[in-house]
Amino acid sequence: MKILCLNLEQDRERTMISSSPFLISFFLLVSVPVLFVLAPRIMPPKTLPSIPDRDEMDDLALFRRATLASAGGSGGGGLRRRAASPPKIAFMFLTNSDLTFAPLWERFFHGHERLFNVYVHADPSSHLQLPPTPSFRGRFIPAKATQRGSPTLISAARRLLAAALLDDPANAFFALISQHCIPLHSFRFTYHAVLADPGAPPAAHGDGVRRRHRSFIEILAGEPGLMDRYVARGDDVMLPEVSFDQFRVGSQFFILARRHAVLVVRDRRLWKKFKMPCLKSREDSCYPEEHYFPTLLEMQDPEGCSHYTLTRVNWTNSVGGHPHTYRPPEISGDLIKELRKSNSTYSYLFARKFSPDTLDPLLKLADSVIFQD
User: Fold this and answer.
1) Which domain holds residue 252?
2) Three-state SS string across 211-261, please?
3) Are 291 and 248 in contact (CB under 8 A)?
4) How far apart are alpha carbons 136 and 99 in whole angstroms?
5) 326, β-bridge pairs
6) Angle at 254 between CA 250 and CA 257, to 5 degrees
7) Does residue 41 sit within a domain?
8) pLDDT tens readout for residues 46-70
């Protein structure tokens, strides 16, 4: 009897051992689909780099100072100073490499020192060389690292706006300029074109009506691929602050009136959405700097904006989200005149994108074509 029981036990063990590979295979076969279903819910999706907390805290402190200093639109007690000097344009250069076109811009600025200020945000990793031109010296603001396809480019533009608001209450307009951008007209033409704008509908102020200047910023709706851009951070992430029908796209570069510059640095509500990093899987649709400013201004003051940009960009044969880059053989007087043409009542005032080796041919055209308008 004992022998019989022992044999039965041994048979059972042999059966379990022989069936274990089958059980393991069956378990793996069943678990793999389950993992595919549950993994996205258990593991957070991969995202592009976000803004470091330290940078965000530094920016918030800067933006609070700029907002308080600009309370009432007077620059914080600077109303008399502003009235004593003519309105100025703040030219804000955003760069991650050398300011190759500084000599051309220097000719543009020459003789108009009382009508402009220059501010430069240079990515700390760029090891930017100081341009040998007086208008750019000492005009570098404290900067943080920037990265394409991330909200850091929005932060850099807001940093420039805050610095310009704090620096001079006479700054009436704020022009964001690319490192690859050139002027298409003389300073005098540019200055009068911006300040002579008929403006937005007048607003009641105190005992009278005050004329309001417009901001020149591209604001577009219904563009192809807009939904892909809207959900770049996640399907419902932008809600409830920004619904899809409120979401806009436009050029990264603009000219803002002072009240809109204050509005941008004061904003917290939309920023908490746009500062969120895009999903790695939707990287191709991530262009935060082209969405934040048009969406914010469309929601806050659509009638106070032109809805078109004054910076000409050629998107023909664009590569990897970058516009056409002009090379030396393309530089001519006819090109400059062609780039000035626009579909609005205004001529384009600036143009991009130009390769660094176009500086010399552009300088040769500066006095005879570019600044002869």
Assistant:
1) 53-370
2) EECCEEEECECCCCCHHHHHCCCCCCCCCCCCCHHHCCECCCCCEEEHHHH
3) yes
4) 9
5) 354
6) 120
7) no
8) 888 899 999 999 999 999 999 999 9
How many Cα neighbours within 13 Å face the side chain of 138?
Answer: 4
Contact 217, 255 (CB under 8 A): yes
Cα 157 from Cα 276, distance rounded (Å): 17
Measure the CA–CA gap between 126 and 120, rounded to whole angstroms: 13
Largest CA distance in the chain: 116
Q: How many residues does the chain have?
A: 373
CATH code, domain with 131: 3.90.550
φ/ψ bin of 178: left (φ > 0), alpha (ψ from -120 to 50), beta (otherwise)? beta
Percentage above 70 pLDDT, the chain: 81
Sheet containing strand 311-313, edge to edge, reads 182-183, 350-352, 311-313
Question: Taking CA 53 as the corner, what is the angle to CA 47 and CA 55, rounded to the nearest 5 degrees?
Answer: 110
Number of H helices, E strands in the chain: 12, 11
Least Cα distance to 90 among 158, 148, 186, 172 occurs for: 172
Supply the pTM of this predicted model.
Answer: 0.85
Q: Can you tell me the distance from the alpha carbon of 266 to that of 290, in angstroms, rounded to the nearest whole number? A: 19
Contacting residues for 5 by C-beta, under 8 A, at least 6 apart = none
Q: Considering its fold, how many domains does the chain have in total?
A: 1
Query: Is position 230 within any domain?
Result: yes
Say how far apart CA 310 and CA 251 lie, in whole Å: 10
Tokens 């570019």 sit on residue: 370
Do 329 and 357 meet the contact criterion of CB atoms below 8 Å apart? Answer: no
In this predicted structure, what is the pLDDT of residue 133? 80
Domain membership of residue 22 (yes or no) is no
CB 220 within 8 A of CB 297: no
Is residue 37 included in any domain, yes or no?
no
DSSP sequence for 84-144: HS--EEEEEEEESS--TTHHHHHHHHTT-GGGEEEEEEE-GGG-PPPPSSGGGTT-BPP--
- Please report the DSSP string for 152-189 in residue order: HHHHHHHHHHHHHHHH-TTEEEEEEEETT-EESS-HHH
Q: Where does the pLDDT of residue 205 fall: very low under 50, low under 70, confident under 90, or very high at 90 and above?
A: low
